[in-house]
């Protein structure tokens, strides 16, 4: 089986190879990987509930973040958010100090 010395994923999702072989067409996985954006990690621990109006009766979404993990979201984000919990994450120096190091 021929190996590729370089592979380029184009915006059309076509793989172009250079070297010993050429790959024609892209797999669905390669196209999905290309479209994925990097998910930032949480720098604070928080929970925000989102409501459909200023009455804050019908909850339509929620954000949940924990230090060092990616944001978890369900539903939709609206201008009517209610912060239920918020705490900043410890830095490395703060963590060391709290452990007595």
Query: What is the H-and-E element order?
Result: EEHEEEEH
Shape: flat
Provide the helix percentage: 10-25%
Distance between the termini: 55 Å
Per DSSP, the total helix count is 2
Task: Record the strand order, biggest sheet.
Answer: 5-4-3-6
Task: Return the average pLDDT rounded to an integer.
Answer: 73
Q: What's the alpha carbon Rg, rounded to whole Å?
A: 22 Å
How many strands appear in the DSSP assignment? 6
| Alpha-beta classification | alpha+beta
Note down, in words, how this protein is organized.
With 101 residues, the protein is α+β, with helices and mostly antiparallel strands. Helix content is 15%, strand content 36%. A hairpin with a 7-residue loop joins β3 and β4 (59-65). The longest helix is centred in the N-terminal third of the chain and has 8 residues, at 28-35. Residues 1-24 have low confidence and may be disordered.
Protein traits:
flat; alpha+beta; 15% helix; four-stranded antiparallel sheet; 6 strands; disordered N terminus; two-stranded antiparallel sheet; 36% strand; 101 residues
